[in-house]
Write a structure and sequence with these properties.
With about 375 residues, this protein is of the alpha+beta class. Helix content is about 35%, strand content about 25%. The strands form three sheets. Strands 5-4-6-7-1-8-13-12-11 form a nine-stranded mixed beta sheet, with helices on both faces. It has a two-stranded antiparallel ribbon with strand order 2-3. It has a two-stranded antiparallel sheet with strand order 9-10.
């Protein structure tokens, strides 16, 4: 067994109101008035109030833009090279900020034995892992792994990898950091996919430390993992590299797929740990969007506020891709670890390209 003994988060300096981002996108897309009304409706229905970005432009007047050109036609529009320059400038320090929030006296940086970095919004070699090692002055023999381009479910995949390491090595102390700068990849063409991306995605970083269950610190025990691919959803969620940046495919059909399959999928995932839906006390669901959360709520026949933590993260941060599930789990953690009267069972799930559904089951009886 393994457990999460610490979670930390960090966001960039620039906090943008959803209304300000709407105005920016209306300028970018050069819509007709009818299109503007439709876009306003979508933004107002998003359940997102604020998002964070390394780019200040989304809530500043044109003369103060730092990333986008000041020209009337926005040419030259940011290239892939320019987007990667910004990624390399900001992603390492944002990662370190999340890591320091995570460790915060719970564990010394020198005690870390393994480092897992997660990202799908920037790639290079040397990569984020080596930049983080250098900034934290980690030992050169630290064991490194990188999980790249797996999208929103990659945070759970990283937990699964850390769990396998800790099961094999009882002395391992695995540091995970998931960092995404999604807003670097907003596109100008007013396609349905680009509009959905500009509506939902944000920047952020989350870190976690996973150890063997024998570690003396309190924690959230990782009891099992399960994943499946829905082949018929393969073309409905995708993430591809192009000369102008990374391109998202995000079909409006995804909530329908989840509503159709997620109940049965959850039953199969829980059966591997001998649990049923009634045993779960906390639901840690990736807030990919309001309609996704509504689909999960409906298919699992929830009656109350079972997904409140997910809705809260969506409202204040948007969808940050891979770090988001750890933001939700961190919001739940205080109540989980302070309850001394009963055993808590957590079911976590996230969704990504494929269409892939990845889950974890965790528990605590602190």
């Amino acid at each position: 067994m393994s457990k999460i003994i610490a979670i930390g988060t960090a966001v960039p300096s620039f906090r943008h109101n959803q209304q300000d981002i709407l105005q920016f996108m209306q300028l970018i897309y050069s819509f007709t008035e009818a299109d503007r009304r439709r876009l306003r409706f979508l933004y107002h229905q998003s359940h997102i109030d604020t998002r964070y970005s390394v780019i200040p432009d989304y809530s500043r007047p044109v003369p103060e833009w730092k990333f986008y050109p000041h020209t009337e036609n926005l040419e030259p529009f940011p290239s892939l090279e320019q987007r990667m320059i910004w990624y390399h400038k900001y992603a390492p320090q944002l990662s370190v900020n999340a890591i320091r929030d995570c460790l915060d006296g719970k564990l010394a940086e020198a005690d870390i034995t393994h480092l897992i970095t997660v990202s799908c919004t920037g790639m290079s070699a040397p990569g984020l892992d080596l930049h983080v090692m250098e900034l934290l002055d980690l030992p050169r023999h630290t064991v490194r792994s990188s999980i790249n381009f797996m999208g929103c479910y990659a945070g759970i995949h990283a937990l699964k990898t850390a769990d396998a390491i800790c099961r094999a090595d009882q002395q391992a102390k695995v540091l995970i950091v998931c960092t995404e700068l999604c807003t670097l990849h907003f596109q100008r063409e007013p396609t349905i996919d680009n509009i959905a991306s500009s509506l939902l995605f944000a920047d952020g970083s989350a870190a976690a430390v996973v150890t063997a269950d024998s570690h003396p610190a309190k924690g959230i025990r990782l009891d099992g993992f399960y994943s499946e691919v829905i082949p018929k959803g393969k073309k409905d969620m995708a993430w591809e590299i192009s000369s102008s940046g990374f391109l998202m495919t995000l079909s409006s059909y995804i909530p329908d797929l989840l509503e159709e399959d997620f109940n049965h999928f959850t039953t199969r995932a829980l059966a591997r740990t001998g649990l049923t839906q009634q045993d779960i006390t906390h639901w840690c669901i990736h807030p990919g969007g309001r309609k996704i959360l509504e689909a999960v709520h409906k298919t699992l026949s929830f009656q109350s506020h079972e997904l409140q933590a997910s809705y809260d993260i969506l409202q204040h941060y948007g969808n940050m891709s891979s770090p988001t599930i750890l933001f939700v789990l961190k919001k739940m953690a205080p109540a989980l670890l302070q309850n001394h009267n009963r055993k808590e069972h957590i079911f976590g799930a996230a969704f990504g390209p494929g269409l892939t559904m990845e889950t974890f089951v965790a528990s605590t009886n602190s």
